[in-house]
Amino acid sequence: MSTPPRAPGGFPVVGVIGGGQLARMCAGPAAELSITLAVLAEAPDAAAALVTPFAPVGDHTDVATVRDFARHCDVVTFDHEHVPSDVLEALVADGVAVHPTPQALRHAQDKLVMRRALTGAGVPCPRWAAARSEADVVAFGDETGWPLVVKTPRGGYDGKGVLVADTVDDVRDWLAAAAERDEELLLEEAVPFVRELAVLLARSPSGQAAAWPVVETVQTDGICTEVIAPAPDLAPEAAEAATLVGLDIAAALGVTGVMAVELFELADGSVVVNELAMRPHNSGHWSMDGAVTGQFEQHLRAVLDLPLGSPRAREPWTVMGNVLGGEPTDLYPTYRHLMARDPELKVHLYGKGVRPGRKIGHVNVSGTDLTDLRERARHAADYIQGVIVE
Ligand SMILES: Nc1ncnc2c1ncn2[C@@H]1O[C@H](COP(=O)(O)OP(=O)(O)O)[C@@H](O)[C@H]1O
Ligand SMILES: [Mg+2]
C-alpha cells in the first residue's frame, strides 16, 4: 500500500473503512477542512473510491489488510458496522485511534447486544426477547401478542433482516439459519407507533456532544424514503425528552462520532428506541444543506476531537427525499430538467450503479412551506427514479 498524500500544515488523515456513500459524502467536508480522507474500499469503483485519491481496495474482515491501511491514518472510522471485533481489537492493540471504539460499536453491530445494554441502562425499548427455538418464539408471541417482529441481530439493513411473523411457522427458516450461525434471533413486540423519529448527534472523545433537531423519518417497505426536519408537530418537551434519550445513550455507551437513534413515537407522545447507528445516517442527510453543520463535517470533527459545529437548522423546514434505483440508468440527463425547474433543490447522487430499490442518492430542499417542500422533494426523487417524466 502506498501512502496517502497529506496537505502541508499539519493536517491529519482520516481513514474510513468501507467505500459506500457515507464515506463518499465525507469527501466534500474533508476537502474544505484540508483533511485527507483515506478509504478502504470494496472495489475500485466503490462510491467513495470514485472521489478519494487514496482508496486502496481491500477486505475489511482481513486483519493484515486493515492494519496495513490503518498505519497511514491518524484516526480510523467507519462507513458501515461490519468490521469484525477481532480486527478492531487488533487496531486498538496497535495504538490506532478508532472512533467509535470497538466497545461502543458493538451496540450498533448487534441488535441483541444493543437491547441488553439499553434495557440495563433503563432506556425505553419495545418488549423483546432472544430466541433459539420455536418454543421461545411461541412463548414470546403468546405473551406480547401476534404478529411479532423478528430480527437477525447482525448484518441487516434497509429492512433486510426484519420479518413480521404472524405465527411461529413464519420464523422456522430463520431459526434454522440462525442455528447454523450459532446465533440467536431478536424478537420484538410489533410496536403500534404513530410515526418514526430519529435523534442524530455527535459526541467527541473529550465528551462534547451536539444534537441536531429531532426529525421524522418515513419508511416504505423497510427503507427510509423521506425525512422531515424538524419532526412536525412534535411538542418541545417531547423533542427535548427524545434528545436526552440520545445524549444519555451516547454518554452511557461512550459513543464517539455521529450516532443516530431510531425511535418509535407512541400515541401518548412517549418514545421507545428502535435501533442505533454509530456513523452518519440516512436520517441526517438533510443536515448537509439544512443545518449550519452537516453530519459528515461533524463526524470528521468528532472523530478528530475537534470542537463540534453548530447543529442549528438554517431554515424552518428541510425535507430530504431518498432516490432509489428504478428503471432509468442514465441519471445525468435528469439534471437539466430538475435544476431548471427548482433552483433551490440540492441533488446528491452517490456514483452507484442503479439497481431496483438500491439507495443511489437523495435530494434536499429547505424553506418555510412544508407541504410545498415535500411535494418538491417527492417530485425530484420520482423524476430521477423515472416514476414520472416531467
Ligand atoms: N418492533 C417493531 N415494531 C414495529 N415496526 C418495526 C419494529 N422493528 C422494526 N420495525 C419497522 O421495520 C423498519 C426496519 O427495522 P430496523 O430494526 O430499523 O432494521 P434496519 O436495520 O433494516 O433499519 C423500522 O424502521 C420500522 O419501520
Ligand atoms: Mg433501521
From TrEMBL:
Q: What class of enzyme is it?
A: ligase
User: Which Enzyme Commission number(s) are on file for it?
Assistant: 6.3.4.18
Q: Which keywords has UniProt assigned to this entry? A: ATP-binding, Ligase, Nucleotide-binding, Purine biosynthesis
List the catalysed reactions. Answer: 5-amino-1-(5-phospho-beta-D-ribosyl)imidazole + hydrogencarbonate + ATP = 5-carboxyamino-1-(5-phospho-D-ribosyl)imidazole + ADP + phosphate + 2 H(+)
The positions annotated for binding ATP are 111, 151, 188-191, 196, 274-275
Pathway connected to this protein: Purine metabolism; IMP biosynthesis via de novo pathway; 5-amino-1-(5-phospho-D-ribosyl)imidazole-4-carboxylate from 5-amino-1-(5-phospho-D-ribosyl)imidazole (N5-CAIR route): step 1/2
Q: Name one GO cellular component term.
A: cytosol
Q: Which GO terms describe its molecular function?
A: 5-(carboxyamino)imidazole ribonucleotide synthase activity; ATP binding; metal ion binding; phosphoribosylaminoimidazole carboxylase activity
- Domain called ATP-grasp: residue spans: 115-304
Q: Name one Pfam family in it.
A: ATP-grasp
Whether Membrane counts among this entry's keywords is no
GO biological process terms, semicolon-separated: 'de novo' IMP biosynthetic process
InterPro entries, A to Z: ATP-grasp, ATP-grasp_carboxylate-amine, ATP_grasp_subdomain_1, PreATP-grasp_dom_sf, PurK, PurK_C, PurT/PurK_preATP-grasp, Rudment_hybrid_motif
> Which family, according to the similarity comment?
Belongs to the PurK/PurT family.
**How is the subunit organization of this protein annotated in UniProt?**
Homodimer.
Protein function: Catalyzes the ATP-dependent conversion of 5-aminoimidazole ribonucleotide (AIR) and HCO(3)(-) to N5-carboxyaminoimidazole ribonucleotide (N5-CAIR).
Q: What is this protein called?
A: N5-carboxyaminoimidazole ribonucleotide synthase
